[in-house]
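Researcher: Re-running this chain for the archive, since the previous output was lost when a drive failed. Same request as before.
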Amino acid sequence: MRWCVVLRGSDGSLIPMTTADRIFACLQGIATGDAIGKQTEQLSRDAVRRRYPHGVRGFEGAPGSTIPRYVGNRKREWRIGETTDDTERTIAVARAIIGDDGAISHASVGREMLRCTKCVHPGVKSLWEFQRAGDPARVATEHDGCGAAIRVAPVGIMYTSDRRGGRCRAPMAGPRRSRLRDGRPSGA
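Model: Regenerated structure tokens:
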């Protein structure tokens, strides 16, 4: 059975999606969710309810203005609609796949990760140590993080479940890539 991904038009018609459409939609969804989520990142459930009594309904404020709780933050004044290191590093994984023509490697992902600049400060130890080491083949053995779950999306786009097409060359790519930063195979 072959799956055909489609969108439903405003008139109810079905619109087939190309591979490029699916890739763009995936990356756009990651970036949008990342930017919306930054508004509540690391807040307790009670704090979210206090700040957003009607729930988070998208971007809460004017695009480009500082998220209220980050005004005066010494590390970074995050802006409404701004993506974080998670989106930047997801795109780095995509660049590594494209740059290696699909033959993804630990070092190629590491090289792209070293180009990333967001959240590189001593407060985020795993990223700080990775950047300071400057070794694209480095494997982290300490620290926790959950960014691997988002960064692995380009691997899923590139390596489909259609083994007949020869595209499933990296079934362990997600867990191996997560070790660059997170230090644990699960990345969780």
